[in-house]
Amino acid sequence: MMKQFIENVRAGKTQFGFAISYPAPGILERIGKEWDWVWIDGQHGQLAYKDVLDLIRVCDLMELPSIARVPSHASSNIGMFLDAGANGIIVPLVNTVEEAKAIVSAAKFPPIGERSFGGRRIIDRKSRDFSQTANEDTLLIAQIETPGAVENAEAIAAVDGIDALFLGPDDILLRRGVSMAVPRTKETLGNDMEAVAQASKKSGKLSVMPAHSPEIIKYAHSIGFNMLASGADTVFLTNASAQLSKTARQAIQDNS
């Protein structure tokens, strides 16, 4: 599954994912087949460890790559999510080369890192030999979401063991003094997008970002982003609920 996914990315096929923040495996079962990968948000989502584990299990059954965002840089969090069987992890707020090296140490087995061997589920499913290919089989994604991180993007991408950079638009814009109500456009995000895409490309790494509007999707694709998170359970709920509520109320008005 993951091998084919990476082959598709390397072949230039943009892979579209959606984010899940609620502990609802049924959402994955219902709509997962429409997407190429799943972003399980263990940082800002309403997910405990068991919820993350259940969502990873559903991804495995559906043969969907599971990319889980950990809540912090702590090696215990990183190891726990990988031991649960996530195909990749996103680590938030990676600002420096030193921080990048520290998360590599936590996420990769020797000789690249110092990840602790174990993991009940991963051993039960893949045997104790899983560690021989684990470094290549899982993606370690560093989230670039501050102006300082953007400045250091090339150096972070060059760290051995970092597989991709993830542009976090909200935190970058927040730190630049931009309101969260301002649309994400080429004008507001373009420079940061280009910096992350170019940094990733220079080191032969992947580039990832959330991109929902057609404008941003087209622009991200044109500058080389490989993985786009273009959907989210929260977005589906909000948009569909608002539209159906409006439609229902309008129907009553039309009938009076």
| Helix and strand run | HEHEHEHEHHHEHHEHHEHEH
> How many distinct beta strands?
8
Query: What do the pLDDT scores average to?
Result: 95
Report the biggest beta sheet as strand number plus sense, adding barrel if it closes. 8 strands, parallel, barrel
**CATH architectural arrangement:** Alpha-Beta Barrel
Q: Which CATH C-level class is it?
A: Alpha Beta
CATH superfamily: Phosphoenolpyruvate-binding domains
Describe the structure concisely.
The chain is of the alpha/beta class. Helices cover about 50% and strands about 15% of the residues. It has one domain (about 1-255): TIM Barrel, CATH 3.20.20.60.
Q: What does the secondary structure layout of this molecule look like, with pairings?
A:
Elements: H1 2-10, E1 15-20, H2 25-31, E2 37-41, H3 49-62, E3 66-69, H4 75-83, E4 88-91, H5 97-107, H6 120-126, H7 134-137, E5 139-144, H8 147-151, H9 153-157, E6 164-167, H10 169-175, H11 186-202, E7 206-210, H12 214-222, E8 227-232, H13 233-255
Parallel strand pairs: 1-2, 1-8, 2-3, 3-4, 4-5, 5-6, 6-7, 7-8
Helix pairs in contact: 4-5, 11-12
Structure notes:
- The protein is of the alpha/beta class and 256 residues long.
- It has one domain (2-255): Phosphoenolpyruvate-binding domains (TIM Barrel, Alpha-Beta Barrel), CATH 3.20.20.
- The protein has 13 helices and eight strands.
- Strands 1-2-3-4-5-6-7-8 form an eight-stranded parallel barrel, surrounded by six helices.
- Helix 3 (49-62) links the parallel strand 2 and strand 3 (66-69).
- The longest helix is centred in the last third of the chain and has 23 residues, at 233-255.
